[in-house]
Amino acid sequence: MNTRAHSTTRHRFSYWMTAFAFLSLQAFMTAPSPLYGLYARRDDFTSLTITLVYAAYAVGVIASLFFAGHLSDQHGRRPFLLAALGLDAISAIIFIAWPALPGLFLARVLCGLSVGLTASTATTYLTELHAAHRPPHLRHRAQLLASNITLGGLGLGALVVGLLAQYAPHPLTIPYVVMLAAFAISAVGLIFSAETRPRLDPRPPYRPQRAAVPPHARSEFIAALVGIGLAFAVLGMFIGLAGTFLLVVLHHTSLALAGAAIGLVFAAGIVLTTAINRWTPRAVLTISVLLMILGLTILVTSAWLPTPSLTLFLIGGAVIGAGGSATFKGSLTVVIGISPPAKLAESLAAFFLSGYIGISIPVIGLGIALQHVTTRDALLGFAIIIAAGILAATPFLLTYRPKNASPATAT
C-alpha cells in the first residue's frame, strides 16, 4: 500500500513538473517576438530580415518534428524533454551573448529544434503520467491541460517578455535570464520525474516520421491534420501581423501592448476550451469555425475603418484565439483517441507537423507581402485566403467523430 501511494505521489509530482517544463518551453517559442522591434531599430533590420529569422526557426521546428518528434516512443520521454530544455538554454545564451544577425539565426534554429522535440513528447508524457495516477474517465483533464499549455505558453511568453522589455532594464538580456531560470527549475524537476516509456531493447532501426493510425481511422486523422493546420494558420496570421499593425496602422509603439495583444489571443482560447471541455468534437468544430470566420471579419474591419480601431483589433484577435484554440483542442482529442498508445508520440508528431507548417505559412507570407503592399492590404488578402480555406474544409471537418466518443471523453 505504501509502495502504491509513493508511486502515485511521484507520478503526480512528475505530472506537474512536466506541465511546468512544457509551459516554459512553449513560452520561449514566442519570447523573442516582442523584441524584434528592438533588434530592428538597433541594427536597421527590415521586416523581410525578421521574416527570414522566423523562417530559420520554422525550418528547425519542421525538421525536428519530421526526423525526431516520434522517437520518444522508442527511447523514453524524459531524455527528449531534457534535450529540448538544453537546446532552448543554449538558444537563450546565444541571444544574450551574440545578439547580431547570425546569432539570431542560430538561436532561432535551436529554438525550432527544441519545439519539434517538445510538441509531441510533452503531450504524450502528460497523458501517460495522468493515466498512472488518475482514473481513466478523467483523461480529458490531461488533454485539456496539454491543449491549454500548448497555446497558453505561447501567449504567456509574448506577454511576459513584452512587459519586461517595456519596463525592465536591459530588455534584450533580462527576458532571456528569466527563461534560463525557468529551464533550470524544469530540468531539476524532470531529473526526479518518473519515466513512462522505457527504452525499447533491442533498439528498432531508425526511420523518419510517419503516422501510425489504424486504417479505419484515417479519415478522422486527416481531418484532425486539416483542423490543426487551419487553427495554427489563423493564429499565425495574427502573431505575424500584430506588432506591425499596432506600430504602422495604429501608431502604438508599446512593447507591452504588442505582447499583451498576443497574450489576449491565447487567453481567450484557454477560456473557451476550458468552458467547452466536455463537448463532442463535432460541436466544438462547429462553434470554432464560426468564431474563426467572425474573428477574421472583425480584424479586417478594425483596419479598414476610416479611423482604425484598437478595440476592434483586440476583440478580433480574442475571437480568432477562441476559435483557433477550440479547433486545436477538438483535433488533439481526436488524435489521442484514435492513436495506438505505443505510437502516440508518433501520431502527435505528424499532427503538430501539420500545425507548425500551418502557422509558418502566414507568418513568412506576410513578411514577404509587406515588402510590396500596405499592412491593411496584406491583412485583407491573407484573411480572405484563410477564410476561404476554412470554408472549403468545413464540410470535411464536420463529418468526423471518433469511434466510441462520448461527451465525457471528448472535448
UniProtKB/TrEMBL annotation:
Keywords: Cell membrane, Membrane, Transmembrane, Transmembrane helix, Transport
First and last residue of the signal peptide: none
Transmembrane spans: 47-68, 80-99, 105-127, 148-168, 174-194, 221-249, 255-276, 283-305, 311-336, 348-372, 378-398
Family annotation (InterPro entries): MFS, MFS_dom, MFS_trans_sf, MFS_Transporters
PANTHER family noted in UniProt: MAJOR FACILITATOR SUPERFAMILY MFS_1 (PTHR23517:SF13), RESISTANCE PROTEIN MDTM, PUTATIVE-RELATED-RELATED (PTHR23517)
Organism of origin: Flexivirga caeni
Compartments where located: Cell membrane
A cellular component annotation (GO) from this entry: plasma membrane
Protein's membrane topology: Multi-pass membrane protein
Molecular-function annotations in GO: transmembrane transporter activity
Name of the protein: MFS transporter
